[in-house]
Amino acid sequence: MDILRYIEENYRNGSLSEAASLLHYDFYWLSHEIKNRTGKTYTEHLQEKRLSQAAFLLKNTSLPVEDIANAIGYENKSYFHRIFSAKYGMTPKKYRSQ
């Protein structure tokens, strides 16, 4: 699906409304279709991509955690820590050290 490619390429700043406009789909229809076809919402896909990119950067770079959060599209550091910990069961710093 084109929307998954859009997320892959625009995970940092992309939005569902921008994707709908670029792909010439109605916003609500596209939102509904994503959920129907994949079982996940646009936001869930976006968050999954961002967090997997964060994990990659934590393992393969020495960038500070705050810079990684910003690089993947999260300006709120505490929110990033909360959702990262929820997905991986540990803080970004601990993930990096393992």
Topology:
Blueprint lengths: L1 H9 L5 H8 L3 H12 L3 H19 L4 H7 L5 H12 L3 H6 L1
Task: Report on the architecture of this protein.
There is one protein chain. This protein is 74% helix and 0% strand. The protein is built from seven helices and no strands. The protein has helices at residues 2-10, 16-23, 27-38, 42-60, 65-71, 77-88, 92-97.
Give the low-confidence spans: none
Gross geometry: elongated
> H/E element string?
HHHHHHH
* C-alpha Rg (nearest Å): 15 Å
List keywords for this structure.
elongated; 7 helices; 74% helix; 98 residues; mainly alpha; single chain
Can you summarize this structure?
The chain has 98 residues and is mainly α. It contains 7 helices and no strands.
